[in-house]
# Entry
Amino acid sequence: MHFKQKWVFVLSLLLVFVMVTGCNQQPVAKAPVEEVVLKIGGSGPLTGSAASYGTSVKQGAELAVDELNNNGGVAGMKFELLFEDDAADPAMAVNAYARLVDQGMNVSMGTVTSGAGMAMTEEVKKDGFLMLTPSASQKEITRYPNSFRVCFTDPDQGTYAADFIKTNDLATKVAILYDKSSDYSTGIRDAFVAQASVVDLNVVEEQAFTDQSNTDFSVQIQAVEQSGADLLFLPIYYEEAAMILKQSTNLDVVYFGVDGMDGVIGQMGSEYAALTEGVMLLTPFAADSKDEKTVHFVEAYVERFESTPDQFAADAYDVVYTIAAAVEKAGVTSPKDKDFNEKMIAAMTQIEVEGVTGTMTWSEDGEPAKSATAVVIKNGKYVAFER
# Structure
């Protein structure tokens, strides 16, 4: 073989080698784009006597998070809900908060109940997270600049209730039965009595109980009956309310409660369900409302959880959409953004949210501005009050 032929042969072999090698090479894999996630953390009673509240809050928040994510997220971020059981206990709430921080929480939903919230708010203040609680209504919950709420405060509920009863001529004589061992109950009672004096609402009887005497209400019921009251105001939780309804079957009054009584239908059981007929609750949410947002929320909630949402579920649903509005207003695109917490907190006083519990704005003291209404229990369901 001549030199020239050898050279051509060698070049041919090299060409084949390069072609084979090139065919066997794998394409260079691109590094996956890391999904940006904003983690919302909260706690509430998923066990114990107040589990109805915590379950509703968790489910309402879950629904909102999934809706936002299914629509592409917010500002390039997906949301994730972290929720812990605190059994409405302050010590357990602090421990639950620590677990949420360990899981990477970026924004706090606080707690469902006020007693637990008072302990947990201190922890959130130290860490500087934006906190937006759906239902912890004790006034001091929002005492720090990073703390906000969606629900009414305890005093607001008392004030609104007195105004509502007077404006709608629901009673000429009012009796009050409250839990004097509960800050929640006494806070609402105090504001109610003060506003009743302002609007000339006649309070003819007051009776109280404590957490040590909350099973037998015969003495209190007899006093209410003898007072001639035609409305009994109950700023209490649904467990005691259910017992009072069962024990006061001969009492001819309108029963009027606040958000803590939400859940009384389920507490009564089928045997006593008829005793809830006509019971009224002050609330910013009515499940039978015909506005588009509420209809969508109720239909989606019923389809997913096979139950009608209460105001706790509605408040939590609004919390998540409020956080989304704050994200957009703050102009953040990641929880790692510089001054993320400060920007989110500042955004809260600059947004307006059209939620299922009303159109809301927030002042620097963390309180929402929105209207209140009432629902009436008819045939085992809440319906909007109509005069």
User: Anything to note?
Assistant: Residues 25 and 31 are 18 Å apart (CA to CA). Residues 155-283 form a domain with the Rossmann fold fold (CATH 3.40.50.2300). The mean pLDDT is 91. DSSP finds twelve helices and 15 strands in the chain.
